[in-house]
What we know:
Layout lengths: L9 E3 L7 H13 L11 E8 L4 E5 L12 H12 L6 E9 L5 E2 L5 H14 L4 E5 L5 E4 L15
Parallel strand pairs: 4-6
Antiparallel strand pairs: 1-7, 2-3, 2-4, 4-5, 6-7
The structure holds tetrahydrodeoxyuridine.
The site of tetrahydrodeoxyuridine has 14 residues, from α2.
Amino acid sequence: MKKTLAIEYDEYASKGELPIADQELIEAAQRATEGSYSPYSHFRVGAAVRMKDGTIEIGSNQENLAYPSGLCAERVALFGASARYGKDCIIKALAIAAVDGEGKAAEASPCGACRQVMIEQEQRQGCNMRILLPLNDGSVREYNSASDLLPFVFAAEL
Ligand code: THU
């Protein structure tokens, strides 16, 4: 039997249609690209997470000559935030922004490994996190939960 899976998400024509707190989060992700260490890909990614107490924590991609040793911006931000805060619903939202090798704003839809980590963060904290992605045409996509981004996520009783 064939089955179909659909996901729902929102798109806003411009950042200005979002609540101020979300606009700030996107701007923090854009600023966070400045901390990127990306001499190999020249693709600068910034991530910003909105914590339960309103604080914003940031991360950026950190590459390494031994390529797999580097880490994406999202995981730098998420792991850093969860190392510093408690565990109950600590992260409310995550914004991701990028700048390409020519210095132009670029889209950075999160990679599969980051999606897996985002979902486990939701499971750990017992709450979803919204994900905000500024797109190249100036619009913003919003997912309500990381679980919308990775159907059939790896799950096991270990
Ligand atoms: N990267 C991120 O930091 N986040 C993403 O969502 C996609 C890719 C990084 C990894 C690498 O440093 C560079 O972007 C190019 O792949």
